[in-house]
Structures are given as structure tokens and as C-alpha cells.
Amino acid sequence: MAASAGGVHGVAVLLDGLGPELPVPVLLVQHLDPRHRTVIAEVLGRRTGLSVKLAEQNERALPGTVYIAPPDRHLLVDADGVLTLSDSALVHFVRPSADPLFASVAGAFGRGAIVCVLTGTGKDGAMGVAAVKARGGTVIVQDPRTAEFSGMPEAAVGTGAVDFVLPLEEIAAVIRGLVEDKRQ
């Protein structure tokens, strides 16, 4: 999932709705200021039953755990669930960016991929959702009318590659249902 401006609240609501028994990992890009130490893992960890941590290089993503891209690092995943952190070029003027994460998720999991774009400014995530959809994955976007900042959701919807456009409070239930369907 990806978020930017207004994202900490949106991500917290979504994670809380996923429940502590989520049978898959969650990978999160939240645009963060690289000049400051981040406490986002601690803040989100207090608002969900899931385990929340900053992702580490070559770490294997485990079910029920939220892995957050550290400041100034792109987060990628391979088909074995091994995480990679990259300091490659900025994408849409940001690092971490949703687009490299979503592209790696599409390549690693194809039809099993589920990605979500939440509130934020700019267009980060739009290219990535197109990649996920092209590989048969599922794309969920927060309804831009309910997002604190509509730029990222509007850019994603504008790709035409979106399966669900939902109010924030409805997204977790849809994700839980999709995870169960894809596991069967």
C-alpha cells in the first residue's frame, strides 16, 4: 500500500481494520522526510494488532507483519518474499516511491498481488497500479472524494487500471475478502 500527505491516519485506519490475524505481509510506502528520524512504525504499531516495523535489507516478509519503507529507500520484494532496499534514483521526486514497490509486487506475485493507493499529493503509484493490473493483480484506491489529499488516488483512478474505488473505512474488509479468495 502507498500513502503520502494525510497518510498516517489513513494507513492506521486501514491496518486496524485488517485485524491481527492477517495471513499475508503488508508492504507500505509512506512518503517520509529523509532528513529526520522516523517514528512511524511506533505510531502505527500502537494503532493496530499487526506487528509493524521498518523494513530491513534481505529480510523475509512474514504474514501479519507490516514492513515500512525506511526514509530515503525504495522498498522492493521478490517472489520468495525477500525484501530489498534501494537508493536508486528518486521516482516522482520521492524516495521511497510506490511505483517501484508496486512493480516489484506485480512481478513477484502476478495475479496474487493486491495493491492499495491511499491519500496523498502527486501521482506516485499510478504507473505501479498499471503494472499490477497488467499482471492480473487487484488494485484498490481510496475514493478521492474521501481522501484528505486526492492527488495520488485521482492519478491511480485515471489509469483505468483500478478494480475498487472505496471510502477508507471499507477498504480493509475488501482486502480481507480478496486475501481469502486468492489463498483458496
Task: Give an overview of the whole structure.
The protein has 184 residues and is α/β, with parallel strands linked by helices. It contains six helices and nine strands. Helix content is 34%, strand content 19%. It has a four-stranded parallel sheet. Strands 7-8-9 form a three-stranded parallel sheet, with helices on both faces. Strands 5-6 form a two-stranded antiparallel sheet. The longest helix has 16 residues. It starts with a strand and ends with a helix.
Radius of gyration, CA atoms, in whole angstroms: 14 Å
Unreliable residue stretches: none
- Helix and strand content put the structural class at alpha/beta
End-to-end CA span: 22 Å
Helix share, percent: 25-40%
| Secondary structure tally, helices | 6
Shape: globular
Task: Specify the biggest β-sheet.
Answer: 4 strands, parallel
Average pLDDT for all residues: 95
The strand order across the widest sheet is 1-2-4-3
Which properties best describe this structure?
globular; 9 strands; 3-stranded parallel β-sheet; alpha/beta; 6 helices; 184 residues
Task: Give a brief rundown of this model.
By secondary structure, the chain is an alpha/beta fold. It has helices at 7-18, 40-45, 98-109, 126-134, 151-157, 168-183, and strands spanning 2-3, 26-30, 51-54, 65-68, 74-77, 83-86, 114-117, 138-142, 164-166.
